Amino acid sequence: xxxxxxxxxxxxxxxxxxxxxxxxxxxxxxxxxxxxxxxxxxxxxxxxxxxxxxxxxxxxxxxxxxxxxxxxxxxxxxxxxxxxxxxxxxxxxxxxxxxxxxxxxxxxxxxxxxxxxxxxxxxxxxxxxxxxxxxxxxxxxxxxxxxxxxxxxxxxxxxxxxxxxxxxxxxxxxxxxxxxxxxxxxxxxxxxxxxxxxxxxxxxxxxxxxxxxxxxxxxxxxxxxxxxxxxxxxxxxxxxxxxxxxxxxxxxxxxxxxxxxxxxxxxxxxxxxxxxxxxxxxxxxxxxxxxxxxxxxxxxxxxxxxxxxxxxxxxxxxxxxxxxxxxxxxxxxxxxxxxxxxxxxxxxxxxxxxxxxxxxxxxxxxxxxxxxxxxxxxxxxxxxxxxxxxxxxxxxxxxxxxxxxxxxxxxxxxx
Length: 415
Known about the structure:
- By secondary structure, the chain is mainly beta.
- The protein has three helices and 19 strands.
- The chain has helices spanning 2-19, 40-44, 221-224, and strands at residues 33-34, 72-86, 91-109, 114-122, 124-136, 142-152, 155-164, 170-190, 198-216, 229-254, 257-269, 273-282, 286-295, 301-302, 313-322, 337-351, 354-368, 374-385, 393-407.
- The chain has a 14-stranded antiparallel barrel with strand order 2-3-4-7-8-9-10-12-13-15-16-17-18-19.
- A hairpin with a 2-residue loop joins strand 10 (229-254) and strand 11.
- The radius of gyration is 23 Å and the shape is elongated.
- It starts with a helix and ends in an 8-residue tail after the last strand.
- The relative contact order is 0.18.
């Protein structure tokens, strides 16, 4: 029965990831906005947490963290997005709900730090819709609408494991399969009928393989011996994108006739993403995480060509979590976990020699549904870009909901 439920959720999530949108006009360039995390817990911590490992949650950023999985776990993420986009002339609002992804993990040999995890999560997200009306006075008075729209993105399906090295260093690796569709639509519509309207559709189908590799240090709290630190670790991970294939089909529609203009295959070069971070636990209840993630989007290539609107990106993130100690007789309110996070992102986008930066603040909580299960909630606000210099300013509120379920599935009996 559990297998059927998981399989059913798999197909729902696959559909939702392929067609989910976030209403970001800047995602028109490259292959869209990079999705750092899909889960409500990670979002509440500032989106990262490469050095964070927890028996009650699956960390999708660093495979080495899976050593701490103590029970079979299943996690699901859902988001509700509302975004305002404004320029010098107008301000628009859009909203949507989507299922982000899921992960599944279980312990194999805790003494050796072997934990296995798999899942389906988003990697990038393309989403924009904009239009503008133009008036041509010469040689005849004519007006037309020019519209641009895009949707889709890149997702990954992964499976991997962790392992404990001598001196209690933890390593982990996963095999990643990347796939997705990106659709670009454009149209010109003459309002007064003075010209011929036309529509263009460019679809890119992406697929390829890669891997994610991670490392977590042993607990260094004894060496630091500062205040009441009970756990201090540093960690790093790298997401490597191998050969990504892109099948492109370009079609046009004029006077009701659909014509195929181009069809071909190209190679896409996506630069690796490197994430470094530290985590500290105070008094066994308070977690502080600091992270830095970097990606050289200036090296991005599509069909051997670089993109002039892309630059190197990085994300600085800080997160805090209060996780009360478990004890017999604790009330419902005494088991609630609290989180807060903030980050600064230098996005990969640059226009008119002006870089687009993003500022974000978030908060969240985990509500107990039992001894091993939680309902996770986070609320994030971010602002990106500005109105000056012909740019767009985005302000968004994102509500993330997640569920984390854990129980014993595999029990070894001594004979």
